[in-house]
Amino acid sequence: MGALCCRPQPVDFDGDINLFHFVLLRCVGKGAFGKVRVVQHKQSRELYALKYINKTKCVKMRAVSNVIQERRLLEEIDHPFIVNLRYAFQDDENCFFVLDLMLGGDLRFHLERLGSMSEDAVRFYVAQISSGLDYLHENNIMHRDLKPDNILLDERGNAHLTDFNIAVHFGERRLTGVAGSMAYMAPEILNKRGYTYYIDWWSLGVCAYELIFGRRPFRGRSNSDLTYSITKDPLKWPEDADKKCSRAGIQVLKGLLERDTSRRLCCKSDGFQEFKRHPWFKPIDWDSLENKEQVSPFVPDGKKANFDASHELEELLLEDNPLKARARKANQDNLSAEMRQMEEQFTSYDFKKMQRRSYYPHNQHLVSTVTATSSGVASSRPGTPGNDFRALDGGIAVTGDSVDLNCIDSDNYPPEQPTMLEKEYS
């Protein structure tokens, strides 16, 4: 009798997607109000990354609109170098994103262990991420939070862009809201004079510089110092820059880190095509690159965990409400306004049954496509050194559509890097 009570219920794979469809495996990441773990679909046996966000914490942090925005944006996009959405659903406690699984870790993880990366590897990553950015911009989406933490590698070393929590659609009207990670923000954001998708190319330049030289191009001990450095300081280079980066590579970095957006690389009407023709990318065959046929100069060690293993230990020892599949409650009448909003607007998605679509009028032409078979996840590392400014209504003072940076605690910044000999290139 007891054995009959404990027998697992059969899974209805023809019904709406839900957590019962997946086997829960190890925890690989943690965010402000959610976690990431590896899961396996019980029917297809495919591995994915499950990003789950606690609804109650989401409401307390006043991040409901951001979660819904991310969910909608991810349904629109599908590209070889983006961590793509495969399923979305919710239960009474959590909202779930099921994403391509990236087994190679994020670039912050590898940068911290290696100190810096080879020019060949960085050129490969810049080529792949620039392809993803161009795709987003063609669909009127700017990412706004490009940094090494949000670039994930698959098991073969291909780079993918993730974390669309503060990504937004853009049009002719420039945005003024301050959002993102300050160390990677373009000067036009900090000057509060309005900005558009050009900011993503600046952030890519900061990432590439940091990956090659092991430190960021602009630094400061406080918010105001960092703002001044990004907006005013000349771009300088380590004394041994010639040993780590070719002249062509330095030209690309300078072009991306150009404060004048009319001269910044990739910011003209045919800017990306011009970017692809730059001599630095001569070793790149762009067609085979997008088909993931090129061999990455850096392949993560598949025998090691390319993420912080403490997440798994924390889940085992400290989690008082571990994740498990639960049937939904029938009565949903007493929900708060925010909970009701998530219930109604965080809609289910199944990439095998549904066409991709846009929730925005100017992108209604989108149709379903299928790209990577193995691929991505929210970053497995803690936040980037340097403050992350999320365009939320809580946790950061918001006035209209801008964020008041004065409310950020500058003590959260890491200490200034040791002084290094620098030189300028004309």
From TrEMBL:
Binding site residues for ATP: K51
GO annotation terms (biological process): G protein-coupled receptor signaling pathway; regulation of signal transduction
Superkingdom to which the source organism belongs: Eukaryota
Alphabetical keyword list: ATP-binding, Kinase, Nucleotide-binding, Serine/threonine-protein kinase, Transferase
Record bears the keyword Nucleotide-binding: yes
Domain Protein kinase: 22-281
Domain AGC-kinase C-terminal: 282-361
Keyword Transcription in record: no
GO-annotated molecular function: ATP binding; G protein-coupled receptor binding; G protein-coupled receptor kinase activity
Family the entry assigns: Belongs to the protein kinase superfamily.
The protein's name in its UniProt record: Uncharacterized protein
